[in-house]
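Researcher: Please predict.
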Amino acid sequence: MFEQQPPESEAVAGVVRDELSALLAGAADAKAYAQRYAAQHAASPFLARRAAAAEMLALVDAPAKAGAVAALVQAGTAGAGEGAWRPAAEQQQQQQPQQQQQQQAVAAHAECVAVEGLLAARGGPLEDAAAAAAWRAACAEAFPRSTHFGGPKRFVEGADGAAAAAAAGELSKLSV
């Protein structure tokens, strides 16, 4: 049996040819675009942009994967939540500063979880177990109360820690 190929269309090929340079913002090819984007956002205050740059580089230039992952982990969690949370101007004026900080912290944690997912995903473009472990450690430090990252302050304890020990004992009885 043979696979049926879709018919070639000169019209489709022409549109792709004409619009590709606009799609790649003037870059010669996807690899050049990814390299330029990564260079632009290497020092970006936005974690999501640095992660996107690393993922693009890994997808279009496999040998650049190690450097992209190293740069992402080295930059750390700085800027997490800055790009994900942007309320409208009127919302921003109405919200209390404490509410804004809480929402930014939630967004930052979510971005850090997403980056960890990129680094730990089996078969993913950024898969790197050592980088994922280093990222997890950095996030545990940045989010000491995070149960996801195993932060050192993830349990609420009484003066002697007895409440946490009692709760842990009760939870162990419920395990299936």
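Model: The mean pLDDT is 78.
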